[in-house]
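Bumping my old thread because nobody answered last time. Still need a sequence for this structure:
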Protein backbone atom coordinates (compact mmCIF):
# COMPACT_ATOMS: atom_id res chain seq x y z
CA UNK A 1 0.00 0.00 0.00
CA UNK A 2 1.35 3.43 -0.91
CA UNK A 3 2.52 5.91 1.71
CA UNK A 4 -0.41 8.30 1.18
CA UNK A 5 -2.98 5.54 1.39
CA UNK A 6 -1.58 4.18 4.66
CA UNK A 7 -1.42 7.62 6.26
CA UNK A 8 -4.96 8.41 5.09
CA UNK A 9 -6.25 5.09 6.43
CA UNK A 10 -4.88 5.84 9.88
CA UNK A 11 -6.30 9.37 9.73
CA UNK A 12 -9.79 8.28 8.64
CA UNK A 13 -10.03 5.74 11.43
CA UNK A 14 -9.07 8.38 13.99
CA UNK A 15 -5.69 6.83 14.74
CA UNK A 16 -3.61 9.98 14.52
CA UNK A 17 -1.10 8.64 17.03
CA UNK A 18 -0.44 5.64 14.76
CA UNK A 19 -0.28 7.98 11.77
CA UNK A 20 2.43 9.99 13.52
CA UNK A 21 4.42 6.82 14.27
CA UNK A 22 4.09 5.65 10.65
CA UNK A 23 5.17 8.94 9.06
CA UNK A 24 7.90 9.50 11.63
CA UNK A 25 9.33 6.02 11.00
CA UNK A 26 9.64 6.82 7.28
CA UNK A 27 11.37 10.14 8.04
CA UNK A 28 13.72 8.52 10.56
CA UNK A 29 14.58 5.77 8.06
CA UNK A 30 15.46 8.37 5.44
CA UNK A 31 17.67 10.41 7.76
CA UNK A 32 19.36 7.29 9.16
CA UNK A 33 20.23 6.28 5.60
CA UNK A 34 21.64 9.73 4.89
CA UNK A 35 18.73 10.70 2.64
CA UNK A 36 16.75 13.93 2.65
CA UNK A 37 13.23 13.25 3.97
CA UNK A 38 10.48 14.43 1.58
CA UNK A 39 9.13 17.85 2.49
CA UNK A 40 5.52 16.71 2.06
CA UNK A 41 6.03 13.95 4.63
CA UNK A 42 7.50 16.39 7.14
CA UNK A 43 4.56 18.74 6.59
CA UNK A 44 2.07 15.88 6.99
CA UNK A 45 3.77 14.88 10.26
CA UNK A 46 3.59 18.51 11.38
CA UNK A 47 -0.15 18.61 10.63
CA UNK A 48 -0.80 15.48 12.68
CA UNK A 49 1.29 16.78 15.59
CA UNK A 50 -0.59 20.09 15.58
CA UNK A 51 -3.94 18.30 15.66
CA UNK A 52 -2.70 16.22 18.59
CA UNK A 53 -1.37 19.39 20.29
CA UNK A 54 2.07 17.80 20.47
CA UNK A 55 4.14 20.96 20.93
CA UNK A 56 7.41 19.12 21.53
CA UNK A 57 6.99 16.96 18.44
CA UNK A 58 5.99 19.99 16.38
CA UNK A 59 9.14 21.84 17.44
CA UNK A 60 11.29 18.83 16.50
CA UNK A 61 9.67 18.61 13.07
CA UNK A 62 10.26 22.31 12.43
CA UNK A 63 13.92 21.75 13.31
CA UNK A 64 14.06 19.05 10.61
CA UNK A 65 12.31 21.35 8.15
CA UNK A 66 14.88 24.12 8.61
CA UNK A 67 17.68 21.56 8.40
CA UNK A 68 16.57 20.23 5.03
CA UNK A 69 14.33 22.97 3.56
CA UNK A 70 15.56 26.35 4.72
CA UNK A 71 12.49 28.46 4.03
CA UNK A 72 11.75 31.67 5.89
CA UNK A 73 8.38 30.41 7.19
CA UNK A 74 10.03 27.38 8.79
CA UNK A 75 12.81 29.49 10.33
CA UNK A 76 10.21 31.90 11.69
CA UNK A 77 8.49 29.11 13.60
CA UNK A 78 11.80 27.96 15.06
CA UNK A 79 13.21 31.36 16.00
CA UNK A 80 10.09 33.23 17.17
CA UNK A 81 9.89 31.41 20.54
CA UNK A 82 13.67 31.57 20.98
CA UNK A 83 13.83 35.36 20.73
CA UNK A 84 11.00 35.67 23.28
CA UNK A 85 12.42 33.19 25.79
CA UNK A 86 12.99 34.61 29.29
CA UNK A 87 16.53 34.95 30.56
CA UNK A 88 18.20 35.65 27.20
CA UNK A 89 21.37 37.71 27.49
CA UNK A 90 21.88 40.68 25.17
CA UNK A 91 24.65 38.82 23.36
CA UNK A 92 22.46 35.75 22.81
CA UNK A 93 19.53 37.90 21.64
CA UNK A 94 21.74 39.78 19.17
CA UNK A 95 23.00 36.51 17.69
CA UNK A 96 19.43 35.26 17.28
CA UNK A 97 18.58 38.51 15.50
CA UNK A 98 21.58 37.95 13.22
CA UNK A 99 20.25 34.50 12.37
CA UNK A 100 16.79 35.96 11.77
CA UNK A 101 18.31 38.52 9.46
CA UNK A 102 20.26 35.93 7.46
CA UNK A 103 17.18 33.69 7.12
CA UNK A 104 14.81 36.46 6.03
CA UNK A 105 12.71 36.44 9.20
CA UNK A 106 13.70 39.85 10.60
CA UNK A 107 10.59 41.83 9.67
CA UNK A 108 8.95 43.44 12.71
CA UNK A 109 9.62 47.10 13.46
CA UNK A 110 10.46 46.32 17.09
CA UNK A 111 12.99 43.68 16.01
CA UNK A 112 14.81 46.08 13.69
CA UNK A 113 14.97 48.68 16.45
CA UNK A 114 16.15 46.29 19.15
CA UNK A 115 18.76 44.67 16.91
CA UNK A 116 20.12 48.10 15.92
CA UNK A 117 20.30 49.20 19.57
CA UNK A 118 22.01 45.98 20.68
CA UNK A 119 24.51 46.20 17.81
CA UNK A 120 25.32 49.77 18.71
CA UNK A 121 25.67 49.00 22.42
CA UNK A 122 27.98 46.03 21.82
CA UNK A 123 30.31 48.02 19.56
CA UNK A 124 29.07 46.96 16.10
CA UNK A 125 27.92 50.40 15.01
CA UNK A 126 28.23 49.67 11.29
CA UNK A 127 25.99 46.64 11.66
CA UNK A 128 23.49 48.79 13.61
CA UNK A 129 23.43 51.34 10.79
CA UNK A 130 22.90 48.71 8.11
CA UNK A 131 20.09 47.03 10.07
CA UNK A 132 18.20 50.24 10.81
CA UNK A 133 18.55 51.50 7.24
CA UNK A 134 17.11 48.20 6.04
CA UNK A 135 14.17 48.57 8.40
CA UNK A 136 13.50 52.08 7.12
CA UNK A 137 13.87 51.19 3.43
CA UNK A 138 11.55 48.19 3.81
CA UNK A 139 8.89 50.42 5.43
CA UNK A 140 8.91 48.39 8.64
CA UNK A 141 8.11 51.54 10.63
CA UNK A 142 4.55 52.68 9.90
CA UNK A 143 3.59 54.56 13.05
CA UNK A 144 4.66 58.21 13.29
CA UNK A 145 6.05 57.64 16.77
CA UNK A 146 8.21 54.73 15.54
CA UNK A 147 9.42 56.74 12.56
CA UNK A 148 10.50 59.63 14.78
CA UNK A 149 12.14 57.38 17.35
CA UNK A 150 14.12 55.46 14.75
CA UNK A 151 15.09 58.61 12.88
CA UNK A 152 16.73 59.84 16.10
CA UNK A 153 18.33 56.46 16.64
CA UNK A 154 19.65 56.53 13.08
CA UNK A 155 21.36 59.88 13.62
CA UNK A 156 23.00 58.70 16.84
CA UNK A 157 24.22 55.55 15.10
CA UNK A 158 25.66 57.56 12.20
CA UNK A 159 27.67 59.62 14.68
CA UNK A 160 28.90 56.44 16.36
CA UNK A 161 29.93 54.95 13.01
CA UNK A 162 31.90 58.09 12.16
CA UNK A 163 33.63 57.98 15.54
CA UNK A 164 34.42 54.27 15.17
CA UNK A 165 35.83 54.75 11.68
CA UNK A 166 38.03 57.57 12.90
CA UNK A 167 39.28 55.76 15.99
CA UNK A 168 39.46 52.07 15.09
CA UNK A 169 43.05 52.16 13.81
CA UNK A 170 44.34 53.67 17.07
CA UNK A 171 42.17 51.32 19.14
CA UNK A 172 43.64 48.40 17.20
CA UNK A 173 47.19 49.60 17.79
CA UNK A 174 46.50 50.09 21.51
CA UNK A 175 44.97 46.63 21.75
CA UNK A 176 48.00 45.06 20.10
CA UNK A 177 50.28 46.80 22.59
CA UNK A 178 48.16 45.82 25.59
CA UNK A 179 48.17 42.61 27.58
CA UNK A 180 44.43 42.00 27.87
CA UNK A 181 42.53 40.17 25.13
CA UNK A 182 39.36 42.10 26.01
CA UNK A 183 40.56 45.14 24.05
CA UNK A 184 41.25 42.96 21.01
CA UNK A 185 37.76 41.48 21.15
CA UNK A 186 36.25 44.98 21.44
CA UNK A 187 38.20 46.06 18.37
CA UNK A 188 37.04 42.92 16.56
CA UNK A 189 33.41 43.91 17.23
CA UNK A 190 34.07 47.35 15.78
CA UNK A 191 35.70 45.91 12.67
CA UNK A 192 32.84 43.43 12.32
CA UNK A 193 30.28 46.22 12.48
CA UNK A 194 32.19 48.17 9.87
CA UNK A 195 32.24 45.17 7.55
CA UNK A 196 36.00 44.67 7.79
CA UNK A 197 35.75 40.97 8.50
CA UNK A 198 39.38 40.07 7.81
CA UNK A 199 40.56 42.54 10.44
CA UNK A 200 37.78 41.45 12.80
CA UNK A 201 38.95 37.84 12.50
CA UNK A 202 42.56 38.81 13.11
CA UNK A 203 41.69 40.84 16.19
CA UNK A 204 39.45 38.25 17.79
CA UNK A 205 42.04 35.50 17.22
CA UNK A 206 44.62 37.76 18.87
CA UNK A 207 42.28 38.33 21.79
CA UNK A 208 41.60 34.64 22.26
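Sorry it took so long. Here it is:
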Amino acid sequence: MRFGAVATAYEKTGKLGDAVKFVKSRIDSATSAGRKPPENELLLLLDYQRRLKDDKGEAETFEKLVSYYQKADYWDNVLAPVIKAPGNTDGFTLNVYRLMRSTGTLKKASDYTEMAQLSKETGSSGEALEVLQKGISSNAFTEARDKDRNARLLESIKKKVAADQAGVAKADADAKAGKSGDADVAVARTYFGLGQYDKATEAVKRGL
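The chain has a mean pLDDT of 92. Let me know if any region looks off to you.
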